[in-house]
Amino acid sequence: MKLIRTLMAAATALAVTAFVAPSFAADDPGPAAYAQALKGKRVMLVPLAMGFDLAQGWAHYLKKEVDAWGGTFETRDPNWVVDAGAQAITDAISSDTRPDVLIIHAPDLNSYSKLMKKAQAAGTYVLLVDNPANFPADAFVGSDWDRLGQLEAEAAIKGCGENSSKKIGLVQGDQANSSSLYQYAGIMKVLDKHPDFKVVAKPDSNWDATTSRNVTTTMLQQNPDICSIIDFWDGDATGASAAIRDAKLDGKVFLVTTGGGEKAADCDKLQDGTYGAVVMTDLAHQSGDMNAIIKFLLQSGQPAGTSHTYIYTLEKATTKADLKPDSCWDLKALQAEAAAK
Amino acid sequence: MNTIGWPNFRSLNQEGIVFAIAVVLFVAAAIGLPGFIDPNNLVAIVRSVSVLGILALGMAVVIIGRGIDLSAVAIMAMSVAWYLQLLNTGTSDGLAFAYVLAGVLAIGLLNGFLVAYADVPAIFVTLATGSFVFGYVRSQLITQDAVPVPQGHWVELLGGLRFLDIPIEVFVFAGLAFLFFLFLRYTKWGRYIYFAGDNPVAARNIGIPVRPMLVLRYVLSAFVAVIAGLLTAASLHSINTRVVNSTLLYDIVLVAVIGGIGLSGGRGGVRNVLVGAALIGILLNAMTIIDIPLLYQNLIKAAILLGAIIVDGILNPRDEQTAQQGDI
C-alpha cells in the first residue's frame, strides 16, 4: 500500500514538472502587470498630525498593503502645524525620491491647493483624505461631512425624544476647517425639517477639550434643560462630557459626537454612557478604499490630475444598543501588532 | 489734598483700570445676561480661569524677577502626559511620579542655569526648552497626542472632588495664590525678587544672591505648571498635548500683564494676577453666553492684550539705566 502511494506520488511529481513548466495554464497576466506597475512605487501620507487615532490607523492599513506589493510607504508628521505640513509636501515634491502618490489630510479648504497642483504637475497623484479642500484631487476618500452632520442631528433628535425640551447645543470645531463647516450645514439641514427642535447655543471649541468643557459648562448653566449636545469631534468631546458630568446631568443630556471609531476613544465611551451616539468612520474600509484607488491610479497610466473621484465612506450613528464587538478598531492592538514585527 | 471731587486720575494705575473694567463688565453682564449672576455660573467663571490663573502665578513670579517662562505650557502638558503614559504601561505610581518630578526639576534647573549663569535671554532659553520638552516627550516617551488617565486612578478621583459643590481647582488656585502672596510679601527671598527684578546689578552689589534666586524662580514655575497639568487631566480624564500649540501660553502672559505686572520686572504681585484672571474669566463667560464666535473672541482678547501692553509701556517705562539687550 505504502509503496504504491509513494510510487504514485513520484509519478505525479514527475508529470507535473514535465507538463506544467511549458504549459500556458498558469499564465494569468494579472499578477505580472500588477507587480510591474506597482513595484518600487512610493506612497506618502501627510496627515494633520501622526499623533491621533485616525492617522495612526490609516498609516497601519496603508503600510501593510504597500509593503505587500513591494512599494515604499512613508509618513510625515506636521503635528497640527499648517506650515510644517506645507514644508513636508514641498520637500517631498522636490526630493529625488518624489512620491508617486501623495495622501493629504488638508487642514482647511485652501492652504495646500497650490502645493497639490505642483505635485500633480510633477506627476504625483494626489489623494485627499477625510477633509475636503477646494482642489480637484485625483481622488477624495473620506466622509461626506454634510451627511455626517445630518446623521448626528438625527441621532440627537432621537436621543432627545418627543417629550423632551427639544433644545440642542452645538460645540463646533472652528470656522475654517471644512469638516466643521460642512458638519454644521448638515446638522442645520435636518433641524430645518424639525422646526420644533432649537439650537440654543453653538460655541466653538477650537478642537480643544478644556475650551469645550468651559463653553459646555456655560451652555448648560444657561440652559439646564438641554436634551442633547453635538460636539464636532471626539478629540474634544471629552471636555463636553466632563461638563455634563460636573453639572450632574449624566444620562439627561444625550451627547453626540463623531470620530474614527477607535475603541478607547469611541466604543468604550458608548459602553460607559459618556456618549449617547457616535457617528463613526469605518477606518478599515476607508483605508481599504484608499488602497484600492492607489492601486488603480498606479496601473491606470492616466496622468496625475486628470481624474476626479469621490469615494465617500459609509457612515453610521452607533449607540450603546447597537454596539458590537467589531464596531470599533483597537489602536493598542495595532500598535502591539506593529511592535511584534 | 484730593479728598473731595474727581478721583486722582494720575494715581490710577493699570491694575486699577483693569479692575474697573472688570467691575463694569460684571455689572453689565449681571444686568444684561440672564443667568450670569447665578452662583453656579460664578463658580464656573472662577473654575474656567483656575488653571490659567495657577499658570499665571508661576509666570508672575518669573516676570517680576525680570524674566519670562515660555516653556510653562509645554512642561504642564508633557510632564503629565509622560506620567500618565508611564502609568498606562505599568510603571508603579510612586516611581512614575518620581521620574516626572525629576524631569521637571531638571528642566527648571536648565532654564534657570542658562538664564542666570550663561546669560542667555530668558525668552530664547525658555522658547527652546519648551520646544525641546514637547519634541522629546512627544516623540520618545508617549505614543499619542492624548493620554488617558487610568481608570480609578487618584488623578481621576481628584477631578470629581467637590467641597460645597465647588470644584477642587478653585481651592487649589486660591491656596496657591495665598501661598504666593505670603512668599512674595513676607519672605526675604520673596522681597529680593522685586529688588532683583527692578535692578539686577544693584541687587547683586548689595549682596543678594541674584543668580541662585533666578534658578529657583524657573524651578518654581516648572512645578506650578505640573500642578496645573494634573488639574487639567483630573477634570478631562486625559491630557491632550495639542494644548502646547494653542493660545494658552499667550493667555497666561495676558493674565499677568493685563493685571498690571510690568514686563520690565520689579512690579506687581498676586493681586494683579487675580484681577487679570477675573477680567478674562468674566469676558470669556459673557462672550460665550452671547454666543460670539471664537474668531471674534480671539480678536477681542488680542485687542485687550495690545491695549494693556501699550498702557504698560506708558505707565511702566523702560528703565534706561538697567535695561539690557534681550529684555522684554
UniProtKB/TrEMBL annotation, chain A:
Subcellular location, principal: other
CDD domains referenced in this protein's UniProt entry, alphabetically: PBP1_ABC_sugar_binding-like (cd01536)
Residues of the Periplasmic binding protein domain: 58-299
Keyword flag Transferase: no
Annotated transmembrane regions: none
Record's keyword terms, sorted: Signal
Pfam families linked to this entry: Peripla_BP_4
Signal peptide positions on this chain: 1-25
Signal as UniProt keyword: yes
Source organism, top-level taxon: Bacteria
Subcellular location: Cell envelope
UniProt record similarity statement: Belongs to the bacterial solute-binding protein 2 family.
Protein's recorded name: Sugar ABC transporter substrate-binding protein
Organism for this UniProt entry: Mesorhizobium qingshengii
From TrEMBL, chain B:
Subcellular location: Cell membrane
Membrane topology of this protein: Multi-pass membrane protein
Entry keyword annotation includes Transcription regulation: no
Ranges that cross the membrane: 16-37, 44-64, 70-87, 94-118, 166-184, 214-236, 248-266, 273-290
Keywords per UniProt: Cell inner membrane, Cell membrane, Membrane, Transmembrane, Transmembrane helix, Transport
CDD domains given in the database record: TM_PBP1_transp_AraH_like
Main location: membrane
PANTHER family: ABC TRANSPORTER PERMEASE PROTEIN YPHD-RELATED, ABC TRANSPORTER PERMEASE PROTEIN YPHD-RELATED-RELATED
Protein name: ABC transporter permease
